[in-house]
Design a protein that fits this description.
Helices cover 47% and strands 2% of the residues. The protein is an all-alpha fold and 186 residues long.
């Protein structure tokens, strides 16, 4: 093993042995307290805050970044949110890279970065007409309001974060919806 691989392996082992910062915070390991109360779309009040924001969205709103229209963004969000309600029983194991990215994205970074490519099956740019805005907006609201009532575990494998707990899914869904609503100034 090369020296850099050995160092990387030691760092990874150290991180894996660390307590999850979302649930426990040792002053020695984490001198600045990490906010354990992340916004979560499985909480009714958080879901309603997202609904209130999407109510402000108009079909003519322009993206502050990226190439999607407001209708395309709503369709993209709906495709992603619909997936959560499907169950996949044969999930591949989470890789170390996915584990580290999950911790960074869900617990450390305040928001998702701009212009990150998602799964090709959820790309909607140029695939939906603006005349479907009202329909997509209503579907978005229905899906968001359905999340807090969803009592079954969410077992979908996330393309970037691997296998998530149901609570982690709630955090990821909030950050994703917040990301796209900020994209359109809502």
């Amino acid at each position: 093993m090369y020296r850099s691989e050995s160092i990387s392996a030691k760092i990874l082992v150290t991180i894996l042995r660390m307590p999850d910062p979302a649930f426990s915070c040792s002053r020695k390991m984490f001198p600045r307290r990490i906010n354990v109360m992340k916004k979560n779309l499985l909480q009714p009040e958080t879901a309603e805050s997202i609904v209130a924001r999407v109510q402000k969205l108009q079909p003519t709103d322009k993206a502050l970044w990226g190439k999607m229209t407001a209708t395309e963004m709503l369709r993209h969000a709906n495709l992603c949110n619909e997936e959560v309600f499907t169950c996949s029983s044969l999930n591949p194991p989470t890789s170390p890279k996915q584990f580290l990215l999950r911790i960074l994205a869900l617990y450390i970074a305040p928001e998702f970065k701009k212009n990150i490519k998602g799964a090709p099956k959820n790309e909607t740019a140029g695939k939906i007409n603006a005349s479907h805005f009202a329909e997509e907006k209503e579907k978005f609201i229905q899906l968001i309001r359905r999340l807090p009532q969803h009592k079954s575990p969410i077992t979908l494998h996330h393309i970037a974060f691997g296998n998530l707990s149901t609570q982690q899914w709630g955090i990821a869904l909030y950050k994703h919806m917040d990301h796209h609503l900020r994209q359109f100034g809502a």
